[in-house]
Amino acid sequence: MIRFENVTKVYARGARPALDDVSLEVERGEFVFLVGASGSGKSTFLRLVLREERATSGNVFIAGRDLQNLSNWKVPSMRRQIGAVFQDFRLLPNKTVYENVAFALQVIGKPRHHIMTTVPETLEMVGLSGKEKRRPHELSGGEQQRVAIARAFVNRPSILLCDEPTGNLDPTTSLGIMRLLDRINRTGTTVVMATHDDEIVDQMRKRVIELSTGELVRDQSRGVYGSAR
Ligand SMILES: Nc1ncnc2c1ncn2[C@@H]1O[C@H](COP(=O)(O)OP(=O)(O)OP(=O)(O)O)[C@@H](O)[C@H]1O
C-alpha cells in the first residue's frame, strides 16, 4: 500500500537529510507506529506519503503509483484515498461538528443525499451522535479529535495517517482515541501513526518503525516503543 524505495529527503542544499535512504513497505490493512526522537523524520515521512513534499532521491509508491512521477493534477485524486489527523485537530472553528465533517465531502463534490447519510453514520461510529450542532470550542479535546477523525475517515480512505493524534490528550482520552483508530484499522484501512506516546505503543503491540536522524533503525512486528526493552 505504501512503499519507500531508497527514499532520501534533503530540505536545504547541504543540510543533513531529514530522511536518509529509507526503504520499507506497509501492506494494505496494517497498523504501523512510527517512532523516533523529535526531528528524526516522522513528519517528513508522512508529508512524502501525502506528496506535500517530494523525495530528493528514491521513490515513494502509494497503491502502486509512483508519486515521483505523478503529475500535479493527479495529486488531489491520489490524496482522496488518504485521510490525515493531526495533534492540533485543525477543525474549522466557525462550523459545527456536522458541517466540519460534511465539508470534507462537499469539497470533493459528493452529492447531497450521500452526505446526508454518510455524515451521521460516521459521527455515530466515532461516538459523537447528539453533538452534531456543537462548535469545536464547545467540545473536549478528545471529542475534537473524534471530529477530526470522522472528517478524515468520512470518505473511507484506504490509508489513515496520524501525526501525534494523542499528543494533546490525557491518557484515558488517548486510550479512547486509540480504540477508535483500532476499529478503523479493522475495517481494512491502513493506519500509520507517528507518536511519542510510549504507553500506547507498548499497549497496542503493533508493528513499530523507528527513525533516528532520518535513518530507519528498527522495524519490529508486535513491537514496543523503546528498543532497549
Ligand atoms: N520544511 C522544512 N524545511 C527545512 N528543514 C525541515 C523542514 N521540515 C523538517 N525539517 C528538518 O528535517 C528534520 C526532520 O524533521 P521532521 O519534522 O520530519 O521530524 P519529526 O520526527 O516529525 O519531529 P517531531 O517529533 O518533533 O514532530 C529535522 O531536522 C527538521 O529540522
UniProtKB/TrEMBL annotation:
One Pfam assignment: ABC_tran
InterPro entries cross-referenced by the UniProt entry: AAA+_ATPase, ABC_transporter-like_ATP-bd, ABC_transporter-like_CS, ABC_transpr_LolD-like, Cell_div_FtsE, P-loop_NTPase
GO molecular function: ATP binding; ATP hydrolysis activity; transmembrane transporter activity
Keyword Disulfide bond: no
Membrane topology designation: Peripheral membrane protein
Gene Ontology BP, a term: cell division
Subcellular location: Cell membrane
GO terms for cellular component: plasma membrane
SMART domains assigned: AAA
Residue span(s) of domain ABC transporter: 2-228
Keywords: ATP-binding, Cell cycle, Cell division, Cell membrane, Membrane, Nucleotide-binding
Role of this protein: Part of the ABC transporter FtsEX involved in cellular division. Has ATPase activity.
Record note on quaternary structure: Homodimer. Forms a membrane-associated complex with FtsX.
Cross-referenced PANTHER family: CELL DIVISION ATP-BINDING PROTEIN FTSE (PTHR24220:SF470), IMPORT ATP-BINDING PROTEIN (PTHR24220)
Family of this protein: Belongs to the ABC transporter superfamily.
Name of the protein in question: Cell division ATP-binding protein FtsE
Organism: Sanguibacter antarcticus
Organism ancestry: Bacteria, Bacillati, Actinomycetota, Actinomycetes, Micrococcales
Gene: ftsE
